[in-house]
Batch of 3 targets.
Target 1
Amino acid sequence: MPIRMRVRGPWGVETIQAEDDWTLEQLVKTIQEKCRVSEFSLKSGYPPSELDLRAKQTPIKDLKLNGETLTLVPAARELEDAPVPEAKRAKTVPEAPAFQPKGVEADETTVEWPEQGGYLVLRVMPDDNSCMFTAFGGVMQISDPAARLRREIGEHILNNPDKYSKAILENLDPKVYVERLQDPQRWGGSIELMCLSEIYNIQICSIDVKYARVDTYGEGKDTRCILLYSGIHYDRIAQSFELGLPVDSDVTQWGTENDDVIKKAKELAAQLKRQDYYTDTHDMVIRCNVPGCEHWIGSGEKDMVKHTKETGHAAFEEMKLSD
């Protein structure tokens, strides 16, 4: 019976079809040929663990790899030297420039995680009022997630009127709240995170940079993801086995019994706080940028929320108060 698996590496994803009488050695040779890389390690399972490639004569049927996605981690020198596999060359497009955190050096966006053989890293989202949806969409590997997640959240709210009543929805009628949510300028927050946890059956942990607080949505779930909240912006926290690997090889989900990942994520948040990677909403004045409004609405998060409730506007800019 054929055994099919996917191998995800820095240069894309390859599908491997093996026979159940293959040994691990045969599988490794096939991966070397198809992915054009000679030295590498393989990780499988959930949470990912490294396969012992020295056990060459192990029957692969004993490893239960059918349907699995294996993560290929090349040896360091191979990251620079290995060619793009032939099957991927025609599809290769120039990559967009990496979005860099404001005021944070690149080496301040990672923490080593030697117990897991890699790093916990910050994946910074564009500052476009849909950062929360983009951050979570990457967890679930959803392309262009903002519009889709806004729509799904809206449907979820309307389908659960007992839970998502006017009292929960910032004193707004559910239909009005859902209508405003579809505006690409409107931010997502705790209500949307609660909905996404229920829709996708995953625990979402949001770590506040300034206060080191962990807000958890979805108690009792089996898996979790982690977002980082820096005052008015969300980013994604991910695990990478090598810093040179592409974003699509990230691990973004962990078992909820894994408290080590929360500890490491809080270390990363503390590191970012030292770099002032947060916005203090109590120490800024806010301007509404919606055409026709365009006036200063006050200072602090309360005034911002009040203005949004009254007008539905959610396009703001901040101006730091002088010391």
Target 2
Amino acid sequence: MTKVIIALDIMGGDRGPHVFSSAVTKILSEFPFVHIVLCATESSANDLITKVPSHLRAQLSVEACEQVVDMQMKPAFALRKMKNSSMRRALDLVNNQLAHGCVSSGNTGALMAMANYVLKTLNGISRPALVSSLPTRKDKKVLLLDLGASINCDAENLLQYAVMGSVLQQSCGEVDSPKVALLNVGEEDIKGNSVIKHADALLKECAGLDYIGYVEGDDIFAGEVDVVVTDGFTGNIALKASEGIAKLVIEEIKSLTKETFVARCLSKFMLPLLKNLYQRMNPDQYNGASLIGLRGIVIKSHGNASAEACYYALKQAISEINLSVPDRIRTKIEKELLEH
């Protein structure tokens, strides 16, 4: 297996650099071909390294950085003034081909601004998009984008998102011809604003997409489509709402199994089913939103991500690196959008 190098910004999350220690250990144990560059202050990087078993430390190196982008910092300020930050250094490593991709749990706005500036978008893509997978009622996952990279989108942006989402699902989800849909307030042709209607017309003209039309919010999780496209404002709300519902269901299940003696007894027999349900709905395994449309791989981990969630973000980076996702998107964009 070809060596994979990941630049990991461990400084920006809510929980501190230590949250990555078990995730890094697990990744290096499972993937011996992976090398992780810790982008951090020297003391934070050294503290993390001491928590990693000694036999794995050869798979680690440090890119010492003096600055840290905090969660409250404005993206424009971070872009101008934080050139020596852990976030910027991770992106620079990717841009200079010293790393194959980067992962950060830092300030989302700052990461998007820096990534766009440092890596640039692919030819034919005007804006990158944040995309992540969500569970469905069937044994498959659906991709939802945009999740907040661009609050306001025009029809051309939505068309580009559809193409990129289709490529990502085809690559990572192993779906030969992903079904693509537009998120709308109804499935009827008369529903939606002018941007949605224009995007619908553009998608219908795109021969390289299996576009099936509009879907409503509750259809996201039905398992009938593979890619759901929307603007960043709506997508972010849909994502956060789904995560909240998943946590509510998990907590309710835990509470109900403890309420009475009978419930506690029954829960022991139901434990395998409950564990399976928990695993399917646990938001941690869906951590790792891809910032696609750039000339490099960037994975955004939740700022408040747990150690398990950080592991899944790193695993997502490895998958996209091995699949050469930006190259696949470039090829599809050139074929479907730039040749016409």
Target 3
Amino acid sequence: MTTLVVAITGASGAGYGVRILELLAYRPDVEVHLILSKAGAVTVRHECGLSPSDLGKLATVHHRPGEIGASIASGSFPVDAMLVAPCSIKTLSAIAWSYTDDLVSRAADVCLKEGRPLLLMVRETPLHVGHLRAMTAAAEAGAIIAPPVPAFYPHPSTVDDIVDHTARRALARVGVTDLAPPAWEGNLNRAR
């Protein structure tokens, strides 16, 4: 059994977290713990037209952001990886500087201290030096910084194609490799 934590915070790009949940939703071999921050709930409703209860149906366990005593707040609870999709700058900063005042930052901190994969889909642009320093600090602590930058080599035709590809890449990066998008096989139209 694989146990994953998926957190959705208030940055734009809630569809990435939703797609990750959809990809994992009906897999009996994956236990998904969802944390939806207060700002994340607002963003999911605005961008995706979904309520917290809609998302809760896609997870095995739905934790409240203030539930600091949740199972995933302890290093003794076995978790294989955590994804924060999207990751707001506020959440990035809390994780980078170990400011664990909610369950998202606490669960992330637990992953870092236990040496477990933590992937942060930081969704902000342009970036100032403070953002970059927070990303560096998080990366130095062991986080995977994975901004949801679209790939165009698979020739996406819709926004959903872009979101799906990025969500699958994120899952593959934390070890769910059977959901990875098709691998790049090189440019077959190279000039000779």
